[in-house]
Amino acid sequence: MSRAYELARQHRTHPNPRVGCVVVVDGHVVGEGAHAGPGHAHAETVALDAAGDVAGAIVYVSLEPCAHHGQTPPCADRLIDEGVARVVIGATDPDPRVSGAGIGALRGAGIDVEVLDDTAARELDAGYFHHRETGMPLVTVKWAMTLDGSVAAADRTSRWISSERSREDAHRLRSNMDAVVIGAGTLRADDPRLDVRLQSFDGPQPRPVVVAGRGEIPGDALLWKREPIVFAGYQLSIPSGEMVVVPDVDGYPGPVEVCRALADRGMFDILLEGGPTLAGAWWRAGVIDRGIVYIGAKIGGGRGHTPLAGVFESIADADEVEMEMSSVDGEVRISFRKKV
Hints:
By secondary structure, the protein is an alpha/beta fold. 25% of the residues lie in helices and 24% in strands. A hairpin with a 2-residue loop joins strand 15 (321-328) and strand 16 (331-338).
């Protein structure tokens, strides 16, 4: 099953789930495969095609085999037709078209089915599970800050608070995302590309997204070469990409509306890299689920900008989170998620 999970992680497949599959006959792996995305064969089909005769085989698959007709035939039917003896499933599919139906079809055909429903199976595609269960994308906020809590200097410069290795780690984070979101202020100040710049990376780049208030949108930004999605409360003329108008909330495109629009476009893993104003608005709107913070070996002296703009009235206003800490090149990396 660990190998099935490893295979599933090889591709970004949204709006389809990440799935890996391993076929075992007489204790030997005879076939394996992963789903590569919409329009491609499902992991079970790839593995079975590679395996040949699988009568009596044990099949390990990270997610419940589908039992409905989509762009491809049901995988549960293929497993039944091939005469496999046992199927071990990492997690039940939360998609209502599948959930329990694939397991039921396999058991109805006399196949022994074991469902693990373990945390690892959900975490390898947390965005998919989150979307199917809530209708919203999984949003991760990321920032780098000084030891005394500033994400930018008073003049709004922020390069480079964290080390080169921390920035490489952040690019690995980007590589697993469907979209990277910034505000127009960050676009003006930093002129970012929002792409993955790792020598070993050859996958699809995340879609750049700009959330615009009433400020100017620079027409010569590097980002226009990457066909961004731009959200605003009114129609804008943009050099390239897609313009989406959503209702304003406090002068900015509503965070909930932006997230729903991205989910409707098959983007379930969202990385928020905007500045304090955007991050604060999204946190207060309740759309941020997780976060990654890099604490650089620098002290700003208390004159910079805090990560989430807004007034902290009382400790009673604070949200509790679960945290994990690690070290990257002598700096601190904190991952956190909201307590459920």
